[in-house]
Design a protein that fits this description.
This protein is an alpha+beta fold. It has helices at residues 27-38, 66-69, 76-84, 101-121, and strands at residues 2-7, 63-65, 90-94. A three-stranded mixed sheet has the order 2-1-3. The longest helix is centred in the last third of the chain and has 21 residues, at 101-121.
């Protein structure tokens, strides 16, 4: 896991494992929606999730193009965008895929304003 808003494309023509910006026709819209979420999240907006084992990983403005972060062939957000004209971003909300129950209230607090801002944009 991480704390970042990722947007299409997740796949790139070269399929390099990382570092290839794979721009969609609606790139600016996707960046706008991802920033709407990230800018209201207290950790995501810093661009420094500080996840164990990935302490040096950073994301400008708390967002990333999926393929630039890491290439995913056949991902759902790309499929939905290409085949269903559905604009979808992926939200990585925690360094831990399954946070303990004791942390869920804090996760809600971290994400509440982001969710509301995102819903307003949609």
């Amino acid at each position: 896991g991480s704390v970042v808003a990722s947007y299409p494309y997740d796949d790139s023509p070269t399929h390099k494992p990382t570092g290839v910006y794979s721009k969609s026709a609606d790139d600016e819209v996707f960046k706008y929606l991802a920033k709407a979420y990230a800018s209201h999240h207290p950790i995501m907006r810093t661009g420094k999730p500080n996840c164990p084992g990935e302490e040096g990983e950073t994301f400008q403005d708390g967002i990333t193009n999926g393929a630039q972060w890491y290439d995913v062939e056949g991902g759902m957000q790309d499929y939905n965008y290409v085949w269903a004209n559905c604009f979808e971003i992926t939200l990585e909300l925690s360094c831990c895929k399954y946070p303990p129950t004791s942390e869920l209230q804090q996760e809600w607090e971290n994400n509440r304003e982001s969710l509301l801002a995102f819903i307003e944009k949609v």
